[in-house]
Amino acid sequence: MRLFPSLFALFLAIPLVEIYLLIEVGQVIGAPLTIVAVVGTAVLGAVLARYQGMVTVTRLYTQLNHGELPTQTLFEGACLLVAGALLLTPGFFTDAVGFALLTPPLRRWAYRQVKDRMVVRMDPFGQSAGPHRPGDPEEPGPTTIEGEFRQRDPDRDH
């Protein structure tokens, strides 16, 4: 799938959906209440995103201090950043998506979906060779060289 056409469609469709929803809601509850609702969801979303962000940062530091790899925590932090941006964007559709991203079960589900589709290969020195998808052509593996090892003592081996 091409990235540019998909992004173009999103940037075109989302504002149209937002305008439609704002007009429909405004006709039902009136313009002043619609404005209060949009501002209220932005404020509530910002407070919730900040709180969950602080919890996530605390969990990140705890995992790092225990020597754990915090991949899920980093992913959830990225989801919270996107949620915060969506909640600050005026509109009901972006607020709904933003609030959905604030729910931990949805973030865990999304993490599992992304994790199951990605494989990270390691080179012989333990460095990441980058993300690969299952089914990508195999790259040649590392070469094993057999030999003997003997530690020398610099004081005795003159």
Main traits of this protein?
5 helices; 2 strands; mainly alpha; 66% helix; 158 residues; two-stranded antiparallel ribbon
Overall description:
The chain has a domain at 29-116. The protein has a two-stranded antiparallel sheet with strand order 1-2. It is mainly alpha-helical and 158 residues long. Helix content is 66%, strand content 6%. The chain has helices at residues 3-29, 31-65, 71-88, 92-101, 104-117, and strands at residues 119-122, 128-132. It is elongated, with a radius of gyration of 25 Å.
Whole-number mean pLDDT: 85
Q: Give me the strand/helix succession.
A: HHHHHEE
Unreliable spans are none
Tally of individual helices: 5
C-alpha end-to-end distance: 65 Å
Break the fold down into its secondary structure elements and pairings.
Layout: H1 3-29, H2 31-65, H3 71-88, H4 92-101, H5 104-117, E1 119-122, E2 128-132
Antiparallel strand pairs: 1-2
What's a concise summary of this model?
By secondary structure, this protein is mainly alpha-helical.
